[in-house]
Amino acid sequence: MATLKLYKFTVCAIYNKNIIYETELSNRNTFILTGGFFNYNFALHRPTIFITMTKLLEWLLGVSLIGVAWGLVTFDLLDLQLPPQYRELAWPMPVYLLVVFGCYSLATVGYRVATFNDCEDAAKELQAQIKEAKEDLKKKGLKIVSAAPVHVG
Amino acid sequence: MASRRGNAKTGEQSDKYSVLLPTYNERENLPLIVWLLVKYFGESGYNYEIIVIDDGSPDGTLQIAEQLQKIYGADKILLRPRAKKLGLGTAYIHGIKHASGNFVIIMDADLSHHVSTLPLKQKEGGYDLVSGTRYRGDGGVYGWDLRRKLISRGANFVTQVLLRPGASDLTGSFRLYKKEVLEKLVEQCVSKGYVFQMEMIVRARQLGYTVGEVPISFVDRVYGESKLGGNEIVSFLKGLLTLFATT
């Protein structure tokens, strides 16, 4: 007769290396964990399944939470009877936030491109050092065939 | 008390910096970068060694490296060549095995500047990892047209939004690591090419290592052309999305 061995698992949810949620399961209630992998946790002294939040999962979680909140307010799913101003404000929020983010992105990238340092001095210094290096190395006996260098300025 | 062999001194005197130089067809750049490293380390007084990992370059890079070894000494220039081009991650693993320093400096042979700024910054904050950045402080670039700047800043912005890595420049490869930190990270990272460099920093953050930054002047490709075409952008985005979904 076959006997089923009972295994106890600890499931830890980890965010930024801190265990934020821990629960015990047994193989009687099995389910599929996405993004998780099985490990033996020597500190906890029992087999442990770690669920690490990837950035993708974080985003999906954040977007879902915001989506649910927006849906609740806009479509009055919980029958909260909020005043109409709230609904009117919440309804175009997603598009509004996207536009704001788009403008912020353009402004930020534009500003960063405009203030991107040009290292003229560093380039000139480097060219001088290359010349110095070649002469010094030739003196020390290095035999190389060099290609034509790029012009500075 | 039993006698101990080796260096019993503690403190800054026993810090040694191993510079890993993976090379492939860098016959012209290699002597220059070695000369610059010798100059800067000599001036700063830090203890160092340079490990050249040549992947069977057909242009004779290894012969140049051998000449340099004769000039500067086999204790300062170590040659650990490999038979063929095997990739950056394995080059680092290979190099670490032969590194006798407790800090490892990674750089491309494309003539990044002032290597002594890395050890200085590390000491300042006791960081596990110090990365050169083109985007902060007085870091910058030379000879880039508007298109290249736009693509660079745009790609960096997307990376910051998606990955929130805590470092301003992810694709740079001018870095200093504590040796055990580099070992741990190379073990964990699975990407190839410069996405590998990005993954190193992201994973370092995840594992709780401290990351410092120094501004660098990026004067690249003195010899040769740097391509930034459509293909590069597509492969960058693919790599970025992979990191987004897996880290």
From TrEMBL, chain A:
Residues that span the membrane, as ranges: 56-75, 95-114
Gene Ontology terms describing biological process: GPI anchor biosynthetic process
* Keyword terms: Coiled coil, Endoplasmic reticulum, Membrane, Transmembrane, Transmembrane helix
For whether the record's keyword set contains rRNA processing, the answer is no
Give membrane topology per the record. Answer: Multi-pass membrane protein
* This protein's pathway: Protein modification; protein glycosylation
Instruction: Report the GO terms under cellular component.
Output: dolichol-phosphate-mannose synthase complex; endoplasmic reticulum membrane
> What InterPro entries does the entry give?
DPM3 (IPR013174)
Q: What is its main location?
A: endoplasmic reticulum
**Which locations, inside or outside the cell, does it occupy?**
Endoplasmic reticulum membrane
User: What positions belong to coiled-coil segments?
Assistant: 116-143
Q: Which family does the record claim for this protein? A: Belongs to the DPM3 family.
User: What is its quaternary makeup?
Assistant: Component of the dolichol-phosphate mannose (DPM) synthase complex.
- Functional description taken from the UniProt entry: Stabilizer subunit of the dolichol-phosphate mannose (DPM) synthase complex; tethers catalytic subunit to the ER.
What is the protein's given name? Answer: Dolichol-phosphate mannosyltransferase subunit 3
Species per Swiss-Prot/TrEMBL record: Cyprinus carpio carpio
Task: Give the organism's phylogenetic lineage.
Answer: Eukaryota, Metazoa, Chordata, Craniata, Vertebrata
From TrEMBL, chain B:
**Similarity annotation:** Belongs to the glycosyltransferase 2 family.
- What does the record give as cofactor? Ca(2+); Mn(2+); Mg(2+)
* Localization: Endoplasmic reticulum
| Predominant location | endoplasmic reticulum
**Single biological process term from Gene Ontology:** GPI anchor biosynthetic process
**Role summary:** Transfers mannose from GDP-mannose to dolichol monophosphate to form dolichol phosphate mannose (Dol-P-Man) which is the mannosyl donor in pathways leading to N-glycosylation, glycosyl phosphatidylinositol membrane anchoring, and O-mannosylation of proteins; catalytic subunit of the dolichol-phosphate mannose (DPM) synthase complex.
Q: Which catalysed reactions does the entry list for this protein? A: a di-trans,poly-cis-dolichyl phosphate + GDP-alpha-D-mannose = a di-trans,poly-cis-dolichyl beta-D-mannosyl phosphate + GDP
Name of this protein: Dolichol-phosphate mannosyltransferase subunit 1
